[in-house]
Amino acid sequence: MNSFEFYTPTKIFFGKGGAPKVGGAIKQYGGTKVLLHYGSDRVLKNGLMDTVIASMKEQGIDYVMLGGVVPNPRLTLVREGAELVKKEKIDFIMAVGGGSVIDSAKGIAMAAANEADVWDIYMGKEPIKAALPTGNILTLAAAGSETSKNTVITNEDGGIKVVIGGDLMRPKFTIMDPELLYTLPPYQTASGVVDIMMHTMDRYFSPPNPPGVSNEMTDRISEQLLKVTMHYGKICMEKPNDYEARSEVMWAGSLSHSDLTGLGLLPDFAPHRLEHELSGKYDVTHGAGLAAVWGAWARYVYNTNVARFVRYGVNVFDLTEDKANPEKTALEAIKLTEDYFKSIDMPINMTALVGKDISDEDIEDMADKCSRGGTITIGNFMKLDKKQMIEIYKSAR
After folding, report:
1. What is the C-alpha to C-alpha distance for residues 142 and 271, in angstroms, rounded to an integer?
2. DSSP readout, 310-363?
3. Which residues of 366-378 are buried (b: 16+ CB within 10 A; e: fewer)?
């Protein structure tokens, strides 16, 4: 295998009835006064927040609440949260929600602990020197942020969406109760399934290894994770209260973005970067946006390493390789991926996603932001410049 580093310090409480454990977990990591961060009122109406608060009170932990997180979480709320943390002398950030809430909590934890402006940190102009500890109760299987080192934030000034990562951003613990997913709307469930798949696929589609080097264990883990996610993702859509299906998808979400599926590989993440500009501009759901752009990206780049797409088709979709025409197998694998997206009611182009025509001017704007004004490329499977980004966006239109 290629060399790699692997670090996953987040403690995981997985299974039914996990919420009452939150107070003890916070206390274990030194929390005495907590910012309870959330988005949807669902966590207030369904009694989850009451359970969290009762657990903290049992441990003598004080708290302040801050809601208002929306999909594609906003920089302004991160700034507001950081000021609240400083004012109230808060020492622990507790997210109750999905990936957007957890990302926002990480941003607050970082903003409150660093002297540098938080947007300068997100833009890579300043390093992450410190972060307050965070924990979370997960209510949506999708982003993998519950155990990952990454945080994604949208700056409303210009609709710029960026991601940064660092080990200081990894949560201290996560509570994962599959029963909390039962009441999710189907669209959110499906978007989450796509997001989970893409976190693995954006690692799986990596440049070829040097001769004589393989990453067979990583590849096999990735392929099986994709098969499990697709199988149980369909069941979640058909039977929302199926505990087995919800638990498999929930666990897959964390594994997919824990770096496990990319060990020894050079991650690509070009589809993610392309989608970030799409959701930054149109405020669409991230997973649905990934479904809308992935096929166009795949057809643009597959000839860079046809064998990788062939392996994907054979090991994930059980295709038989056409050795006389491997491109046919590769393209069939791409089509079957899009067919799966459609089977769970996800869009496979941007017009279907946004609900209106995407102009050339809008595409130019997204490509300009994605390429930082034409100064950087994205991806590693195939490095893409601004002109190529435009071509992919147009193909995805």
Report:
1. 16
2. HHHHHHHH-PPP-TT-HHHHHHHHHHHHHHHHHHTT--SSHHHHHSSPPPHHHH
3. bbebbbeeeeebb
Please report, as a single letter, which amino acid is at residue 7: Y
User: Does residue 394 or residue 259 have the better pLDDT?
Assistant: 394
Residue 25: half-sphere exposure toward Cβ, Cα within 13 Å: 24
Instruction: Tell me how far apart the alpha carbons of residues 108 and 93 are, in angstroms, rounded to a whole number.
Output: 8
With 0.90 as the threshold, say if the pTM is over it: yes
Q: How many residues can be counted in the chain?
A: 397
- Using only C-alpha atoms, the chain has a radius of gyration, in whole angstroms, of 21
- Pull the structure tokens for residue 203: 């690692």
* Burial label, 283 (beta-carbon count in 10 A; 0-12, 13-18, 19+): middle
* Under 8 Å between Cβ of 127 and 120: no
Please say whether the beta carbons of 265 and 201 come within 8 A: no
Helix and strand tally (H, E) in the chain? 16, 8
Angle at 187 between CA 185 and CA 192, to 5 degrees: 100
* The residue type at 216: E
Q: What is the pLDDT of residues 160-204, one digit of tens each?
A: 999 999 999 999 999 999 999 999 999 999 999 999 999 999 999
